[in-house]
């Protein structure tokens, strides 16, 4: 087993403590939930801003609520972005995204005074909304930074009916200025993100670290099934148009088609109305999250799924309507930066690293629309994530820090050679 440097080991221990500290900033009493533009978002930014400042970074919250810390010095140098996100799913783990942000800060500390001699400026970004937990649309923080904000999102509503526009204002941000969060791609070297794997493959291969080759193409939908609410006792089966049973059959169709087509599809929410024990459900609303390696394959699978929905609706006398809430193309990691991550891992003695396609979404997807991106994955015991038992060991974070530092130095050296 390879072992990490002393500096990385000390910083990894501190990162574990900081993950615990951030885990206490939650809107759930017995779990972690920290969503976009909430008071918890503000508190997490305040805490991370302190850590960034202590690391010597110049810190600001941008026009989309992302927290950004830059190394001081020559502002004409090209910028290498490091980061991940601080928002969470509901009843989340404490490492998804967070560990990548804290590793970015730790890299600046490992560089120490060397940071001023680099031919690049480093900017660490804590993205504000990767998960899409509050408004359904994911990657809003990084979309603002990439300059691909869509003004149609302003009318998205959360579960309390609050629009994104009103949530912005309540958080103290000005919707009219969101475009100021965008980077000028011409100033960028690229974006490096460290993240837990959120799957079992590194652990199965007995490897601490891996290199991401590409990130899944994703789409998310809200599906409404309308039937007829009726008396649960008095209505014979041949007269029923049970929206819940139609939705349940549709959810099974998502699973069947995705398994056959080697994609992943998940029905993660389901709401039934009127929601009474003695009433046949008249309305069901559910979500579908669909991911595949390539955009065209994902879209073909979605067409197959919607044909299945139509067939189910026809058979049961239901009406089905679908609205798309999120779409992100597959992103392929850049060879130049990926090589740097690969050789960074090699410097830790981990040998030839495993290459993985990420089925999970990441902020790198948005940045990949405007600059080169690469990702370093950390082993995730049991492959469990989006769950309170999510874990990454301090030893693996320490190795990851050594690998990421070597990758940063490699990318910076390449930049020095090209300027
Ligand atoms: C984010 O974690 C996602 O893949 O949904
Ligand atoms: Mn996540
Ligand atoms: Mn994540």
Alpha carbon gap, first and last residue: 38 Å
Largest sheet: 9 strands, mixed
Mean pLDDT: 97
From the alpha carbons, calculate the radius of gyration and give it in angstroms.
23 Å
Looking at CATH, the homologous superfamily of the largest domain is: Zn peptidases
Give the percentage of residues in beta strands: 15-25%
Low-confidence spans: none
Query: How many E strands?
Result: 16
Query: Any idea of the CATH class of the largest domain?
Result: Alpha Beta
CATH architectural type of the largest domain:
3-Layer(aba) Sandwich
Percent helix among the residues? 25-40%
Domains (count)? 2
Number of helices: 11
Q: Which ligands appear in the coordinates?
A: glyoxylic acid, manganese (II) ion
Class by SSE composition: alpha+beta
Q: Give the topology string: H per helix, E per strand.
A: HHEEEHEHHEHEEEHEEEEHEEHEHEH
Any idea what the shape is? globular
Account of the 3D structure:
This protein is 36% helix and 22% strand. With 419 residues, it is of the alpha+beta class. The protein has two domains: 6-215 and 330-418, Zn peptidases (Aminopeptidase, 3-Layer(aba) Sandwich); 217-328, Alpha-Beta Plaits, CATH 3.30.70.360. Strands 1, 2, 3, 4, 5, 6, 14, 15 and 16 form a nine-stranded mixed beta sheet that branches. Strands 7, 9, 10, 12 and 13 form a five-stranded antiparallel beta sheet that branches. The longest helix is centred in the C-terminal third of the chain and has 25 residues, at 394-418. It is globular and about 80 Å long. The mean pLDDT is 97. Bound molecules: glyoxylic acid and manganese (II) ion (MN) (2 copies). One manganese (II) ion (MN) binds next to loops.
